Amino acid sequence: MPLLFAQGLRKSFGETRAVDGVDFFVESEELVSLVGSNGAGKTTLVNLLSGLLVPDAGSIAFQDTDITAVPVRDRIRAGIARSFQLVNLFDQLSALDNVRLAIFSRDGTTRQVLRLAERNRPAREEALEVLRDFGLEDKWDTPAAGLAQGERKLLDVALAYALRPKLILLDEPTSGVGTREKGTIMDAVAQLVRERFLAAVIVEHDMDVVFAYSHRIVMMHQGKVLAEGTPEQIRADERVAAALLGKA
Amino acid sequence: MSGVQHSPDAAMPLDTARGAHGVQPALWYTAALALLALLLPFLEGVPVIGWLASPFQRIQLTYGLVFSIAALAFNLLLGYTGLLSFGHAAFFGGAAYAAGLLVKYLHVYSMEGFLLAGLTSATVLAAVFGSVCVRYTRIFFSILTLALSQVLWALALKFFWITNGTDGLSIPTPILLGGLVGTAGDKVRFLSFTYYYYVLFIFFICVAVMGVIAASPFGKALQAIRDNEVRAQFVGIGVRRYRWYAFVISGAFTGVAGALFAPLNGLTTPDILHWTFSGKIVFMTVLGGFKSFIGPILGGVAYNYLETYVIKTTEYWQMLLGIILVALVLVMPQGIVGVFAWGSRRERRNR
User: Where are the transmembrane segments (chain B) (predicted)?
Assistant: First the structure.
């Protein structure tokens, strides 16, 4: 069995079938890209997998355990973390505290009421190391709201990463940032997948980025999976080209 | 749904341990103020500050310190968790009434008994109220806290054979530390000296404990919930449960303040259960500055002076307080602390 295995997922919003019978899987240590035009259902699929939404039909299994109706917190505990397309950070907290919070939560130490957060040296060291991995170590003391857009995107991913997941779901980690920062973000992610043995699902619009970093590409269109394969296969697929140009 | 939105560039760091420049002077000021408070009863007749040391002024300060504890506790919810409660009178008044009922029915005069009863009743009340209120946020949360506290006020008013209705319950001079410190002599001497120190000591403990809570991993989790509820959920924090914890802790410390208030005032009347008293706690906190830890302390003390002297000057004192509140929100949303911070930033820039 793959790490994550979803079958027959459906989710409608009123008349719109955002996700319409999708089968989807992720192997361990695999970097899968989800591509498709706006409204193809990519974000909805990620929301279903991460637990933000509950599917109307279908099932999701993670490490051979059914998690279809499992709440967010338990999915995180099981090892599924996500980042957000629209950056979701703790804006008044410093970059360090943002990451540290993920670490505290992961370790169950947010229950500590009468101990200074600062006294937890290992958590501090680890948080600084995560910031270093994402090139944010100089900004450790800056409130999240004071970071540049690219840095905020990185911090958003760093928060998910600090939970030490087995599977990380990244919803457009490079949208709204400059070309050079895109490389920084994707290099960081690809390196983590390689070195820390985690699996990643990345929603991405930039096909250059997708072809350069993915092991496998899943192309969605109008709520359905249109094509699936290695970057070479997808590059050769005429339907993909047509859909990307909006003709399908 | 990110709750209260603050403008971050203007915000003082809630975390007092942060910012290498800000810490040292702040620590010195705090130490100096603490020392002044400790020595105050012996400074009568000293030039410049002697007037502050008169028994009347010391009793005023005692009131201020009691309010400060309540405002600090309240701010664990407002400033740290992003929840505006309009029902904290229930915990303050509930604790004071617990002390009153202890006297009336069990003839207990021990201050520690009052504190225990106050703390327990406020904690239980907060646990019950909280379990209902934390299901909601923003205005719905505020309205619910207000409504529930009004129920308690109505009970205190209507069950007059228990609570003496509007006459209230009288609280005699309590026995401190099981009679270890003398309580004999006149009431003014007791309140302005013995009880002043008693309250000051508990005030220090409360500030220290709440300070640690605010800077603990738990406190950080509350701030995370305040900043971004969805993301807090997605780093694995049980948002509703943590809101409830915050509510209970906040209520418990407010109860400590209420228990200390009872003998100081000598009487518990339903008005400290009324929602307008909750409003006063909100006022104190905003006055001092809810975006910093120490703001509510200054706010509690300042509010008490404000009320005392404004009442003396005009019978329209409530209107005057209202005008001050409006001006505060418009001109100095960071409160008294914000003015100090602004001053020290200017000073540093000019250097």
Answer: 26-49, 61-80, 113-132, 138-161, 195-218, 244-269, 281-305, 317-342
Provide the CB-side half-sphere exposure for B29 (13 A, CA): 11
DSSP state, residue B7? -
Using the predicted structure, report yes or no on whether residue B1 has a pLDDT greater than 80: no
Residue B19 has pLDDT above 60, yes or no: no
ipTM at complex level? 0.88
Strands A216-221 and A31-35: parallel
d(CA B302, CA B34): 16
Q: Is the dihedral of CA B307, B313, B316, B319 positive or negative?
A: negative
User: Are B242 and A94 an interchain contact pair (Cβ–Cβ within 8 Å)?
Assistant: no
Structure tokens belonging to residue B26: 């702040």
CATH class of domain segment(s) A4-244: alpha beta
B16 pLDDT above the threshold of 60: no
| Interior angle at CA B243, CA B16 and CA B120, nearest 5 | 90
Mean pLDDT score across all residues of chain A: 87
| Nearby residues of B351 by Cβ (< 8 Å), 6 or more positions away | none
Structure tokens at A88: 């979701």
Nearest CB partner across the interface for B215, out of A110, A116, A146: A116
Integer Cα distance of B75 and B67 in angstroms:
12
Which H or E element spans position A59? Answer: strand A57-62
Q: Which sequence spans correspond to the domains of chain A?
A: 4-244
Q: Which two tokens stand for residue B186?
A: 């006149």
> Distance (Å) from the C-alpha of residue B209 to the closest C-alpha of chain A?
7
d(CA A116, CA A166): 30
Rounded-to-integer distance, Cα B345 and Cα A214, Å? 50
In B, minimum Cα distance to A86 occurs at: B231
pLDDT confidence of residue B14:
46
Identity of the residue in A90, A113, A141 whose CB atom sits nearest the CB atom of B223? A90
- Stated length of chain A: 248
Residue A227 in 3-state DSSP?
strand
| Rounded alpha-carbon distances, angstroms, from residue B347 to A99, B26, B234, B341, B342 | 33, 14, 42, 10, 9
Q: Is A57 helix (H, G, I), strand (E, B) or coil?
A: strand
Q: DSSP strand E in A139-239: where?
A: 167-171, 199-203, 216-221, 224-229
Using CA atoms of B275, B278, B280, B283 in order, give the dihedral in degrees to the nearest 10: -120
Residues in chain B, how many?
Answer: 351
Any idea which residue has 């409006």 for tokens? B326
What are the two backbone dihedrals, phi and then psi, of residue B284, each rounded to the nearest 5 degrees? -55, -45
Rounded Cα distance between A7 and A182, Å, is 32
CA-CA-CA-CA dihedral for A26, A30, A31, A34, to nearest 10 = -20
